[in-house]
Amino acid sequence: MDDESSTDQDADSPDTSQMTFGKGSDPTDSSQETTNDDSGGISIRDRLQTESSGGVFANKDLVRSDTIIDEDRIVGRDDQLGRVVDNLKPVLQDEGIPDMLLSGPSGTGKSLIIHAVCKQIVELCESQDKTFGVLSINCEGPKTADRAVYRLVKAAADDLGVEPGVPQTGVSTDQKLERLYELMREHYEGVIFILDEIDMLEGPYQEAEYNSLIYQLSRARKLADFDGPISLTAITNYADFMKELNSRAQSSYNPDDIFFDDYDANQLRSILKMRRDAFEPDALAGDVIPLVAALGSHTHGDARKAIDLLRWAGELAERRGGNTVTENDVREAQEKYTENRRLRHISGISTQKKLAIYAVAATGHYTKERLEWIPAGPAFKTYQFIADTMDMDQYSRETFVNHVTEQSTYGVLEFDRRGKGRGRGVHMYFSLSEDPETIMETIREDSRFEDLAHENATIGAVVSERLTRFRNQNY
Ligand SMILES: Nc1ncnc2c1ncn2[C@@H]1O[C@H](COP(=O)(O)OP(=O)(O)OP(=O)(O)O)[C@@H](O)[C@H]1O
Ligand SMILES: [Mg+2]
């Protein structure tokens, strides 16, 4: 997130975030605007924070693929789990541990397994009065090896509750590494560096940055003056990642290569069964889990997608007001998300990007004219309003526009700069490829957004006001 900056609301926009509505009030009437304290109405924030009742889910987090699950829910990865355990076990006897490379397709348990084992090692070390450092970064974020090293310093500092002690910019990579080694010497008896999605660290130069990161870290054993065991563990989707490395990185990094293959239908079924308690006791029709597992194994063998499909089916069941998830819900979810690449893509983007797209779709949807080309200015104001309503971070207009235009790569929309009329300047406009309402519904299937369904009138009012202003003035 370090490239993005928050921004204040523009001075000319009314602060609509604190609007409260008494029962029966007309939310489109701006004379109803009051503060939270004195109206006795229900604030938007309160409404957003109230759990929706009923439905098919008992603990929906269990079918969110970003939830960190307990060890006893891991099934079907005995070999890989065994290898990782055997490799890291020597830490408990203060003996050396090997480097590892975990590779395999998406959703096959690589991140899950390494973190599950490391968690146990940390706890066992604690019981021996030792501190084991799990310094894990995702290499999708940092663009250079230098930035990645800084993230490792930061990971250690956060883990230890101390200051990073070096700035992110303005000092050399060696100085950052030195600080990393210092933190290791002072606080840890053993360390594992986990470089997740290592292949994403390409950087701006011809030679990918992961080469230098791997080279520099693998020399830590020699240079850090650190007595304890160290493992450099990288994670990637590419089975041939080692071949991508330059000779310097290859000669310093000799990992135990552990491959994670696709799950078959039986494995997916066991994984899903272990999360059955995400649903109310009788909410899953008997054939639902086998069907999700079968569909998943035919198309990908990816546990993340299978878990998502099960959740989507549950969400569709709730939307039609049902108490049971049926085979039909699964098929509908499969069709909706698997066939429609754009909607599936939207359902998988980050919360901030969903928010940006939601604002654009709402701006298109709530105008009487059903605009084909939606102006970025009013859409950004709608974005600010919704972000405020949901108590979410607000980014600058530039970041908002970047988040939206980025989706053109996935066919979600087109964008264009065009004139507003003679002499009235050139503005950025977006044109959505799907019906705005369908896009909004898709985003609201993410529970963080589901309560926005209650905000139609308010958002509609903001959209109308902003579009009227847009037409009447330049901004
Ligand atoms: N063997 C398993 N048992 C239970 N849940 C699993 C298993 N494997 C994967 N999952 C679940 O599937 C999701 C994806 O797993 P994970 O994040 O480990 O995939 P990955 O291999 O790291 O994928 P990517 O390459 O896309 O990062 C997670 O929600 C995880 O809990
Ligand atoms: Mg992963």
TrEMBL record:
Record-listed ATP binding positions: T108, G109, K110, S111, L112, Y263, R275
Stretch list, region Disordered: 1-44
Compositional bias segments (type: Acidic residues): 1-13
Stored InterPro entries: AAA+_ATPase, AAA_16, Cdc6_C, Cdc6_lid, ORC1/CDC6, Orc1/Cdc6_arc, P-loop_NTPase, WH-like_DNA-bd_sf
Ranges where the AAA+ ATPase domain occurs: 96-295
SUPFAM superfamilies referenced in this protein's UniProt entry, alphabetically: P-loop containing nucleoside triphosphate hydrolases, Winged helix' DNA-binding domain
HAMAP family: ORC1_type_DNA_replic_protein
Family: Belongs to the CDC6/cdc18 family.
Protein name in UniProt: ORC1-type DNA replication protein
